[in-house]
Amino acid sequence: MVASSRCASVVTAVAATATVAVIALGTTEKSLGFATGAPALRRSSVRVEGAAADGMTPIVGVASSSSQFAGADKVLILIGGVAAVKLSHSRNRGRFIQSKVRVQALVATTNSAVQPVVNDETAELSFECETGNYHTFCPISCVSWLYQKIQDSFFLVIGTKTCGYFLQNAMGVMIFAEPRYAMAELEEGDISAQLNDITELRRLCTQIKKDRNPSVIVWIATCTTEIIKMDMEGIAPKLEAELDIPIIVARANGLDYAFTQGEDSVLAAMAAKCPDLPAPLPANPQPHAPLVIFGSLPDSVAKQLELELKRQGITVSGWLPSSRYADLPSVGEGVYVVGINPFLSRTAATLMRRKKCKLINTAFPIGPDGTRAWVEAICKALGIEPQGLEEREQKAWDSIKDYLDIVKDKSIFFMGDNLMEVSLARCMVRAGMTVLEVGIPYMDTRYQAAELALLTKTCKEMGKPLPRIVEKPDNYMQVQRIKEMKPDLAITGMAHANPLEARGINTKWSVEFTFQQIHGFTNVRDLFELVTRPLRRNKSLPEEWQTFVKDGAPAKKLEA
Fold first, then answer.
1. What is the pLDDT tens value at each position of the chain, 560 positions in all?
2. I want to staple 7 with a disulfide (CB 3.0 to 4.6 A). Which of 3, 169, 220, 393 is the partner?
3. What is the distance, to the nearest Å, from the Cα of residue 531 to the centroid of all Cα atoms in its chain?
4. Pairing of the two strands 336-339 and 358-359
5. Which residues contact 332 (CB under 8 A, 6 or more apart)?
6. How many CB atoms lie within 10 A of CB 522?
């Protein structure tokens, strides 16, 4: 193996007299996953052939764990830049796979934890994609907060009994309690096409109008409607004309969408219904162009962000969604739009392409640093000089000094669930944590370009290594990496929380960050309350209670 020129200086920095093992870690054609440190291999091994840099001892051997190189004084582990490497997988009958591996130098002694080398100025984030599967909460859960935000709406989820059970359990509200959403349960006759879709939906929507008289009905399409190819977009305009009530169709099936993308789908469909702003623009009493913010937030949080902008002399023209459907903002050419959450890429595309709005690409107002960047980007786009933001940010950080002392120099691992992982990772790095990996179900690098740039900048300013970003991560391989890395905290879905806790890994449910108020300067304490809770909890427990695994349990059971 020949190290890249960028890594050569790091290699040469190791004492020339030392015996050095050079290991290249990455993802091959066989999707082998590796931890930052020793290879996290199970039931397989990788053969490494190559030469170290000048003055180093070449290594040829089979690496199944770090103990294979216990005789070396130093181990140089290459992750992330570019080096050509030959890897053979034991299941592949010894056939060599030629693979390109991105490299970022890490140096450690064989009997100690890996200590990352601080990234140089040319270092960049590395992106990987593993399985292509979504391991997330169901996207139809967006109904739970959208029906409360749009107060004159009615959400009709069209799916099976399974969807109904999920809504009842996930939202804690029984369907028979008659909130402003309901299930249209597909039965055998619907699936086998014995019943007419438009007839059944007409009957349901007529009943909804009679009982509730909402300003808008939102149809939420699920996996089943996608599979049986129900023509909801074709049916909706006919019933809309018959019933004289707007009907919005939003696809939120778990086959194509991750957890929070359900909201993105609803808002994208709603953006298409926004009234067009007449051209030329009417006289604006404000000294700046119209500004529309898209993304669903509780009214109290939305008001706080409006007040932050008002401090800069900026008035918000409208929100998407608004509290009432009739108050949807007018959009068109000359209107600036800005997102509130990193999972709203489809809504942003709809506003730009169909409504010709101007998107302000910025980091998102999660954490003090993100909120400052968000306000600064809006000010810059509208031609306004920001005032006092540095002091506002510092005041927010000072208010959580007790939490910062807890997270300082701790490591964190994001498994990926709600698409807010990059924003949260950036905030945690600024707080002093080391982010080992950022798993994310879907990454729109254009929409999150400013967030990714701020993450890179923050890592370099804080002297932290750039995290590995894995799109659509494979959960099995992630668990193996967590086992090797042993992070102080893992942000994970509910399915993996208890198994990881049983192995001594502190966890926090990612869905909590979706439902908690974490945006803006004023909610930073709530954000770090969530992050530090498992760390504070375990610190307060007696030492013998800090693991779910009984002392003296058979080793085989612990490895299972």
1. 333 333 333 332 222 223 334 443 333 322 223 333 333 333 233 333 333 333 333 333 333 333 333 333 333 443 333 233 333 333 332 222 223 333 333 333 223 333 343 445 667 788 888 876 667 778 888 888 888 888 888 998 888 888 878 877 766 654 444 577 778 877 665 555 556 778 888 888 998 898 888 899 999 888 888 887 888 888 889 998 999 999 999 988 877 788 888 899 999 999 989 988 876 666 666 778 899 999 999 889 999 999 999 999 999 999 999 888 988 999 988 899 999 999 999 999 999 999 999 999 999 999 999 999 999 999 999 999 999 999 999 999 999 999 999 999 999 999 988 889 999 999 999 999 999 999 998 888 999 999 999 999 999 999 999 998 998 888 888 888 998 889 999 999 888 888 888 888 899 988 889 888 999 999 999 999 999 999 888 776 666 555 555 555 555 444 44
2. 3
3. 15
4. parallel
5. 276, 277, 278, 279, 281, 355, 356, 357
6. 17
d(CA 150, CA 109): 57
Name residue, tokens 């691992």: 413
Token reading at 20: 């050095």
**pTM of the predicted model as reported, rounded to 2 decimal places:** 0.74
C-alpha span between 17 and 292 (Å, rounded): 63
Q: Which residues pair with 154 in a beta bridge?
A: 217
Kindly write down the DSSP assignment for every residue of 2-46, as one continuous string.
---HHHHHHHHHS-TTS-EEEEE----TT-----SSS---SS--E
